[in-house]
Structures are given as C-alpha cells and as structure tokens.
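Look over both lines:
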Amino acid sequence: MKKLTGLLALVLIPSLFLQTATAQEERTALVPLPSVDDFTRGQDGWAFGLGLGIEYETAYEGSDEFGFEVDPAGAIQWRRGNDIFFFAGEALGWRGLRNDTWFLQALIGFDEGREEGDSDKGYLDGLGDGKEGLEFVFEARRAFDADWRNWLVGRVVASENGNLGLFGVGRRFGDKFDGSGSEINLVAVFHDSEFANKDFGITAQQAAASGLRETRMSGGFRSVGLDYSYRHIVNKNWQIFGEVLYEYYSSDVRNSPIARSNFEAEVGIGFIYVF
C-alpha cells in the first residue's frame, strides 16, 4: 500500500501544485462533510468532477483475502439552492439540506452481487454467483448545530435481495466549510434474513456442491462499523480524498462458514479533478 501511495503522489504532485495553495478559496459546500461530494463551489447549475481511486479491501463479505482495486471517482451534479441531483457511477440520486441541520439523501444504485471467483483460494467454489439487483438507499443526518461538528446518522438500504439499516453518530474535524477536513462515523448495522442469507447463507444445493454445511441466517444485528473520511482541496480544480472502513461482525455472522474472518476492512486513496 505504501508503494502504491507513493507512486500516486509522484504522479499527482507536479500537476496539483501548478496552482499554489494560496490560490485556494473558501467555498461553501452543501454540507461541510468530507464524505459528501460537492463540486458546485456553492453555485447553482452544473458541476463535474472526474478522478481515480485505489482501494485495498476485503475480497468479499467475510473473506480473509485482500486485494487492490482501481475505481473511477467523481460525479455529474446539478445544483439548485440547497438541492443537488447527481449521477455517480452506478448511482443516480438527490441530496438536500433542510433548516441547516438536516441532511437528506436518496439514490438508486446497483448491487453487482458476489461472484464465485472472488476468492482466489477457492473458498466460494460450489456456491455460485450471487444475485444482482437494484438498491434503493435513503440517508438522514441530523446535526446538533449548524456548523456540523456532531450529528446522528441513519441509513436504510432496500434491495431486491433484502434490506439493511444502520444507525450511529458522527463527528467532523477541521474548520473550513468547503467539504475539506476529516470526519468519523461509528454505526451499528442491522439486516433482515434475506439480506443476511445473500452474504452468509448456504442452501442445501450449495452445501452439496461446496462441502460447506447448510446455513440459514436470521435477521438482526449484523455488525458495528467505523468509517473515517478525509478530503483535501489543493486548489480550485484538484482534490485528494481518502477513506478507512472497519466493520466487526456479530457472533451470528461469524458462525457462518462463509465468514472466514471476523471483520471487513478497506483503505482507499484517490484524486478528483473538478472542471
């Protein structure tokens, strides 16, 4: 990871500092949270950001295998006042700010599903590929004050393959209101039985093909998670972002033969050019 991060820095540094940090302007984001992309610079109309991210992450839910993945980053956005409509990769959505302390977000996304080949060691052999499907996501954050220093967060994911919800608290670090700085969220995650079996259940047919024991998961508490986000606005056009995610599974999840690890983790870094 250090080697790749260093290579990324060598590529970025010559271009990023063509404009000096003194040219930075304080731009008001919809909400001053590093985890929420806002490329509009506080202006109504269209905005566009394009970049690249490198992630070192768990191969699949419950895996003890890790690997690197390169993904595009950025979004197309259209802002009107305190509302932003956006298209980002496989997600189409809206986010808005209400009464300075309510942040709401709704989007439609796509779950690609787990693939049997996601395990290089063959731990998923015989389980087949998971189901693909649409996801409908609604999120609400309620800040304790207008500067968004601390907040409560809730998110619901309703999909063709089950439902998931998370609830927690967050805190922002840094003094700027342009979306730079860092934030941390601590959440508890819950799932229904259909969602649980999508990731950790094993049918009788899968058990016969894989040699793993048949497993039927029930709904309830899934995990506790910690998510850290960072964003640095270098100048008018360039941004650097990073994220660290850690999720520790409940005892029910850890008892599944698919869960070869007690946790899921991810570390990512990348850059975005704002047009």
Observations:
- The chain has a mean pLDDT of 90.
- The chain is about 10% helix and 50% strand.
